[in-house]
Amino acid sequence: MQLTKHTDLSLRVLMYLAITDDELSTIKDISEHYNVSRNHLMKVVNRLATLGYIKSSQGRGGGIALALPVEEIGVGDIVRAMEQTLNMIDCEGSGCPLTPACLLKGILSEAATAFLKSLDGYSIADLVRNRPQLIRLIG
Q1: What DSSP element (H or E) covers 73?
Q2: Domain containing residue 26
Q3: Residues 70-91: pLDDT tens digits?
Q4: Cα–Cα dist 42/51, whole Å
Q5: How many domains is the chain built from?
């Protein structure tokens, strides 16, 4: 399973905000540090704000920050919220003649459930335990 760039960037934004010590960050700063499009980052930030993971303030001196403690932001929750589908294959739309008797979809569904269960064991706090190293990398 490969996560979309949208989900990947969501996790990176949350990590960035977690290591910046409750300072307000800007989309410009984050886009420059991660070398990503501001447009794409705006979509990610808007979605995270809508979901209540981050808060934003506009205008001079505005920016974004975490809305929750890092320990309360589950990695599995973020993946579920950001991914449009967690289906590993599309049996219905594939026209595959094996679909009525195929066991593959069930096995892959079981694997996806195990994947998410594993992610549920981690929070954003776990992703930034090496905070000093991460701070050096984003300078």
Answers
A1: none
A2: 5-84+123-138
A3: 999 999 999 999 998 877 777 7
A4: 14
A5: 1
